[in-house]
Amino acid sequence: MALRACGLIIYRRLQAGAPSSKVGDNIEYLLLQTSYGTHHWTPPKGHVDLGEDDLQTALRETQEEAGLNSSQFTLIEGFKKELQYTVRSKPKTVIYWLAEMNDCNTEIKLSDEHQAFRWLKLEEACKCAEYKEMQAAFRAVHQFLCSKT
Predict the structure, then answer these.
(1) Are 50 and 11 within 8 A, CB to CB?
(2) Of 30, 31, 81, 108, whose CA is between 20 and 30 Å from 140?
(3) What's residue 3's pLDDT?
(4) Is pLDDT of 15 > 80?
């Protein structure tokens, strides 16, 4: 059986007036570092529980892993990304929605599943993410956001 997980790619825009040389330079993405395995960096995500739909899973996992409830961010219409890859010889699908923080200074409260978090600009986020599918998702999000400004 294929594994299925859902999550949110969360970003914040730095305050207006911050020095920026090009469109999108003021955008940072939230990455969480796992406290298990290879300690990889990922947006908040997790497996779908019985009776949950995909978006409910993404919202629950974001609350559990980063301490963010849905009143603290805004889901961005028009973006949804499905990643497919193999984990331990099993196919896995991860679906991400996009969300913008309402307040860029909101506190992140990690669960025991994670040991650190970072807000990173696109290139730094891609380096930390390591996996090419996640890097492609960040690039697609960034292109989507920059095309809207």
Answers:
(1) no
(2) 108
(3) 87
(4) no
Q: Which two tokens stand for residue 14?
A: 């730095």
Q: Which 3 state secondary structure label does DSSP give 145?
A: helix
Dist. CA 75–CA 70, nearest whole Å: 8
Domains and CATH numbers, the chain: 28-148 (3.90.79.10)
Query: In a 10 Å sphere around its CB, with 0-12 CB exposed, 13-18 middle and 19+ buried, how is residue 19 labelled?
Result: exposed
Better pLDDT: 86 or 142 = 142
Residue pair 105/13 in contact by the 8 Å Cβ criterion: no
Backbone angles phi, psi at 122, to 5 degrees: -50, -55
CA-only gyration radius of the chain, Å: 15
